[in-house]
Specification:
The chain is α+β, with helices and mostly antiparallel strands. The chain has 5 helices and 7 strands, in the order βααβββαβββαα.
């Protein structure tokens, strides 16, 4: 007698969101030339917004599913605004991450597009209720707090772009 093989249904899912930062003074030219000093100055000056489920101790980058007809950029801007309560402007593209998860017998292959965003208004107290809390974290603390390593890698990818933004007013060639 053979073993029955049950095939799981696979669903592809897409979300967009990003690394939103604030509170960044302009880096000194001397420190900008020294990558180590620039990195420590960024870590001391930059805050990243995360969203979390407090009881479970889960902290993630804000992201969500596109509405009909939305571009990834539009989705990212809307989702960050809804989940965090802050207004942001995209200043760079941080690329995609992909991962798999299962829920109720369905396997999901998820792709998430991340953008680098600078905060320009709003208040985390105005976040929607999808997450328990939206909170600003110093960059180094955000890296330690993020639940998923792939999202921490996205934030690490953002660091040199933030440094360029602070020193030259651009991240991916996008002027301030």
């Amino acid at each position: 007698m053979g073993v029955a093989v049950v095939k799981s249904r696979i669903v592809r899912a897409f979300s967009a969101g990003g690394v939103a930062f604030r509170g960044v003074p302009t880096l000194s030219a001397a420190n900008a030339a020294d990558a180590t000093r620039a990195s420590s100055e960024i870590a001391a000056a930059v805050e990243i917004v995360l969203v979390g489920f407090l009881r479970e101790g889960i902290w993630v980058l804000p992201k969500g599913t596109p509405n009909s007809g939305e571009t990834p950029e539009q989705t990212a801007l809307r989702e960050v605004r809804e989940e965090t309560g802050i207004e942001v402007r995209i200043i760079g593209d941080l690329g995609n991450i992909e991962y798999w998860f299962a829920r109720k017998g369905v396997r999901f292959h998820k792709e998430v597009r991340h953008f680098l965003m600078v905060a320009n208004g709003g208040d985390v107290a105005q976040h929607d209720r999808e997450y328990d809390e939206a909170r600003w974290f110093p960059l180094a603390e955000a890296l330690r707090t993020l639940t998923h390593e792939n999202e921490a890698q996205v934030v690490r990818r953002a660091e040199p772009m933030i440094a360029r933004w602070l020193t030259h007013g651009e991240a991916n060639g996008t002027p301030k």
